[in-house]
């Protein structure tokens, strides 16, 4: 027995020593985030019909988390939490009602300048810091060139990609997506007003009514001005939102979707080659697999799951090419690599051909749902050969917010002490020196509304989940809110539960069997303990300026990024004037 304990102690000592030695040399850090990918879309998470060999190999060579959780179920707030290690509402990147994500490059909302990203801290530690791909954290505040929310103002020294996000409007052949319901209402009001003016004019011509022509022309002018006021933004969504930037310059407006994946890959590989003498941080924020699912001919029609499956398999290929660039430059053993998604798959994304969103495996719900597991449970794969044990699987609850303190620690920095940091370093858990996650409680928000909370009772191994609100699926019996973009967070679209719903995820991960006092003897004690933790959590909250207010969300022409002279914004790659 004494020999066994000696061997165990020596093993832990060697592992810790190896980690400290590797940490002392500051590893390169490669973070890859997919967009709208369902956890059930990957082979290493149980999918046997989609081909994802490169991501699966990453999991085989590293550590795979099975209970990795997004801090928010939509793009903008989830990514702000990822970048800062803080719930998005702490920086105003959430909403009470209405808009839950940024809608325009020309809006004034975005990640506040006083927020600290992991890129900023690593930059101060001597890292080259690059972002390739999607940003979706805002661009400007007061002028077209102030770039207050821009990646280069948040710690990245190089940026190439979309300051916004892919939307259907980026593809001329797709139906509108950005604020489509508002756009439809405005078009309806314009038609009604125009019809009214036309009716009055015809009545005047026929002598049926006596109205001065000045009044008719004045009304017609008002209708025209009303039309121009909204069509200037909604009529040109592709030109305003679907653009590419390199650092502070717009390089393509509107972007050509068919070549975007190739450009992103070239940029990522080039960044690795330029900075191979390191250390570097590279955040590859993929545009895959967000609708409109732009897929190159090489992958079209090759999967078993239509256009979405094709896009997933192309995404896996892109990940493989980036990992190959790491290996070809001799950086595999000195690079801490990570793969995840910003939230769950988009269940409501459909067209006449079928499903366009991801599969969330056995988990209930999807994108936009802050409480159900399918909206927030995401892949979590880490690889660092020689430091992290290959093939290890961890079932502890972790968060995307944990990446912030983790990479800060690896880079030799320190997390800010002047604010609440919700993330916890994963280093002890990943290297095996800690048995349990540092999170006893996690709180799950939809917008600014608390929908659920979980309690990891470490002594017993039980994992309790309490739901205070759940979305009302449509049609009844469905697993999503079909007919809407995503499920709402509040109002008539949710059910408030009193008493709350209680699940034991350790025995019911699909959340299909709510517990009751009759089925769970500790029912009341569990609810009381979670409520106590919730009250402590609420004492950490404080009001901040809302970034998703109507004043910040609306399109402002003086803030619109533009190559050329506004409003004649048009250029091809690297700012060349567009022939169009």
UniProtKB/TrEMBL annotation:
Domain Sulfatase N-terminal intervals: 27-412
Cofactor(s) it depends on: Ca(2+)
Record keywords, A-Z: Calcium, Hydrolase, Membrane, Metal-binding, Signal, Transmembrane, Transmembrane helix
InterPro entries reported for this sequence: Alkaline_phosphatase_core_sf, Sulfatase, Sulfatase_CS, Sulfatase_N
Source superkingdom: Eukaryota
Residues that span the membrane, as ranges: 186-203, 215-237
Pfam families tied to this protein: Sulfatase (PF00884), Sulfatase_C (PF14707)
Signal sequence interval, chain numbering: 1-18
Family: Belongs to the sulfatase family.
Protein name listed in UniProt: Sulfatase N-terminal domain-containing protein
Organism expressing this protein natively: Felis catus
Gene: ARSD
